[in-house]
C-alpha cells in the first residue's frame, strides 16, 4: 500500500515520525513535503496529496498541520477527496467505515505522537463498510 504524506512546517516533525513508523511496517511512502520547519503554506501540501490520491499515485493520504483544520479544509476542496480530521482512534475507525475517507488529517499541536501513530494505524487497517454508507458517499459527490 502506498501512502502520500504532506505537512506544513507545523506538521513537519510529526510527518517524519509517521513516515518512519509506516516505513517500518512496510508501507511505501510518497513524501510530498514540507521538508523542514521553515514556514510554508499548507494548501500547497493538501493539493499535492489530494492529487496523488485522485491520480492513483497513492492509496491513501495523511496530512498534518498545526491543528489539522486548515489542511483538511484545503484537501476537501477536491471532488473525490474525503479528508477527515481525527483526534482519536474511534474517529479514525468510523470515518473509514462510514465515510470511506481517503485522507487522514492530524493536528500536530493537538495530538501527541503516540496517539497520532495509533490513529494512523487504525485509519489504515479499517475497511469501508459499504452498504447504506455507499449511498451517502454518492450524495456527497453530487
- Give unreliable regions as ranges: none
Helix share bin: 40-55%
Profile the largest sheet: 5 strands, parallel
- Determine the strand fraction and express it as a percent band: 15-25%
Average per-residue pLDDT, rounded, comes to: 96
Distance between the termini: 29 Å
**Widest beta sheet: strand line-up:** 2-1-3-5-4
| Topology as a string of helices (H) and strands (E) | EHEHEHEHEHH
Count of β-strands:
5
Number of helices in the DSSP assignment: 6
Q: Find the structural class using helix and strand composition.
A: alpha/beta
Shape: globular
Q: Output the radius of gyration.
A: 14 Å
How would you describe this structure to a colleague?
Helix content is 46%, strand content 17%. It is of the alpha/beta class and 142 residues long. Strands 2-1-3-5-4 form a 5-stranded parallel β-sheet, with helices on both faces. Helix 1 links the parallel strand 1 and strand 2. Helix 2 crosses helix 3. It starts with a strand and ends with a helix.
SSE blueprint:
Elements: E1 2-7, H1 12-24, E2 28-31, H2 42-54, E3 60-65, H3 69-75, E4 83-85, H4 89-99, E5 103-107, H5 113-125, H6 132-140
Parallel strand pairs: 1-2, 1-3, 3-5, 4-5
Amino acid at each position: 500500500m502506498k501512502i502520500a504524506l504532506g505537512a506544513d512546517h507545523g506538521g513537519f516533525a510529526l510527518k517524519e515520525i509517521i513516515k518512519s513508523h509506516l516505513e517500518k511496517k512496510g508501507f511505501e511512502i510518497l513524501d510530498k513535503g514540507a521538508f523542514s520547519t521553515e514556514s510554508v503554506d499548507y494548501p500547497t501540501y493538501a493539493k499535492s496529496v489530494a492529487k496523488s490520491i485522485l491520480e492513483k499515485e497513492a492509496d491513501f493520504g495523511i496530512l498534518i498541520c498545526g491543528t489539522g483544520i486548515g489542511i483538511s479544509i484545503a484537501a476537501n476542496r477536491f471532488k473525490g477527496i474525503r479528508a477527515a480530521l481525527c483526534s482519536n482512534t474511534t474517529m479514525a475507525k468510523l470515518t473509514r467505515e462510514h465515510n470511506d475517507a481517503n485522507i487522514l488529517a492530524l493536528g500536530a499541536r493537538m495530538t501527541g505522537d503516540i496517539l497520532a501513530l495509533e490513529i494512523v494505524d487504525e485509519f489504515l487497517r479499517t475497511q469501508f463498510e459499504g452498504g447504506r454508507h455507499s449511498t451517502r458517499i454518492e450524495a456527497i459527490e453530487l
